Each structure stands twice: as C-alpha cells, then as structure tokens.
Model the fold of this input.
Amino acid sequence: MAITSETIRIVEQMRQAVSSIVDSTSRSLVSAWVRAWDQIALDVVEAIGELLQIGDGAWPSRRQIQHTARVVRALDVIGATLERLADLTRTETIEAARLAAKVALDAQNPLVASQLPYGSTKALAANYKVQQPDAIDSIVRRTAEQIHARHWPLADEATERMKRELVRGVVVGDNPRTAAARMVKNLEGEFNGGLTRALNLARTETLDAHREAAEIGQEQHGDVLAGWVWMCELNSSRGRTCPSCWARHGTVHPLTEPGPIDHQQGRCSRTPKTKSWADLGFEGIDEPDDLIPDARAIFNALPEAEQVQIMGRRRLDLLKSGDVEWEDLPELRTTPEWRDSYGVRPVKDLERIAKQRRSSAA
Done:
C-alpha cells in the first residue's frame, strides 16, 4: 500500500498533461474573446457617439437608447458574437474533457503497478470491464449535459448586463465624452464577464471529467486497491494550491467515494492506493515506506513570506497559535446547480472556532 517515487512521478506527469490541456483551452478562449471584442468595439463606440448626439451632450432616456438604430445594431452584433463564443466554449470544453479523461484512464494501470512488487501481474490482470472508448464517450456526454443544464444561456446574460450598462448612462456632472470613454471600458468589462464564466466552466468541467475517468479506471482495480488518496500540487511558487487543498492533501478515501470534490477550477487529483502486500498475498517481501508528500512538513519548511502568500496573514497566525487546526481550514460547501465541494473556510469563521476553543480551555 506504499505510494512510491514512481507513483509520484506518474502523478506529476499526469498533472502536467492535464494542465497543458486546460491551459491550451483557456488560451484558445481568451484569444477568441479578444478578437471578438476588437471586431465589435467600433460598433460600440459609434453607438455611444450617436447617443451623445441625440442628447446634445446629455445622456438620453431609456426609451431613446432602446430605439436608437446604432445601439440596436450594436447589441444585435454583440448578442450574435456571444452566441458564437458560447458555442465555441461548449465545443472546446467537450474536446478538452475527452482528452483529460483519456489521460486519467491511461494512467491507472501504471499507477497501480508502481505500488506492487516488481514483475507482479496483478495490475495487468485487472482488465477494464468497460472499453475505454465507451467510458470516455459516457464522460463526454455527461460533460455536454452539465454545460447545458448549469451554465447556459451564457450569451443572454452577458448581453443583458451590457444593456443595463448602456441604460445606466453617464453620471450627472461628468463630462459626457469622458464618461462615454469610461462606458466603453465598462462595456468591455461586461463583455469579458462572459469570458470569465466561460473559463471557469471549461476548466472545471475538464478537470471533473479527468477525475471521473480516474474513478472509472480505479473501479476496475478494486480487487487490489484499498482506496484513493487526495493529491494536490504542493508548490507555492505557482500560486494554484489554496489552504483547503493543502489541508485535504494526503487524506485517504474509500474507492466508492467520488472525488476529489475540489472547488471550481481546482486541480487536485485522486491517486489509487493499493492494499498492503501482505493482504495481497505477497509473503516474505518487505514493503517500502509510503512516500506520500507530507503537506504540513513541506508547508512548515517554506519561508514565512510564502506561507503568508498561501494562507493570508490572519489565517496563518491562527494556525501557528494552535487556536485552529489544519482540519479546520477546509469547508464543505453546497452550491446550487453544482456538486458539493471543499473550499477555504473564511477567516471570520476560523476566528469563531478559535474563540470557542479558548473559552473551552479556560
């Protein structure tokens, strides 16, 4: 049941492959959004210019705005553009989910074999009961269904926010043209709000597809596995791992438990953990030590500036004082129209826990 150096190497290789898929999809979506705004920005500027002319320097009424030809045309173009971008997001996410799922399924045999005595056939004997293409197709279908059920209509909501921004108009007393320039910037921000949502959707669904595929692959090795281990990237320099994930790292879970139920865009993974060699019938062989990285030891060895970067000053102080424990850092959350997930417990809640403990100890 030892996680070996070879296990860690495969986990890191798999993490890099999935990160490459996620990052490539993100770059593609960002590029598409930037090109789209560049194409429609002129229509937006001209529409605002016409509104300034209608009001003779003052901002027109809601009715005038909604019936101005250039505004109507600009909003139609924006709506059509966002619909196209929404379709692109769906297509890109489904393909990314397919690739990430394959990475996970391909890795399960090597991950299990890396924890068994050299030359053992037990890992190879666990042939998949479902063919890999069928498993991947099932995951891709679920991903497509999740996008439709939870995240649409992305285009309609972004367009509506831009309409509200136009109607809100110029603040009284502002120079109209200065305010109009600011409005163009605000409208671009609303337009890019669709990008923020699209990136969250693409990253989260791709990573969930990867974890679901890992779960399916591990089910086929149930006869040799004791469960799975929550693994995160213990690297402060990349700034990706939150306090909740640091605290959850290394926890062992039953094979039947889904997960890791990470927060949105979280990149934690599930690593299969075999039963002990003795339980698997390997007699007279010394099993190596488990090499699961110790999150707390790694964190404690970091310079304080990096610890603060990860935890925040107040959270770190509470942790170092002993008033809160590592187990207090994660908080299970229920998000409407999404699965349960672990996120970082707010500092104010940690302070309440610390106060209760100090009162109990007094």
Q: What stands out?
A: The first strand starts at residue 225 and ends at 231. The radius of gyration is 26 Å. The longest helix spans residues 5-54. Residues 3 and 291 are 5 Å apart (CA to CA).
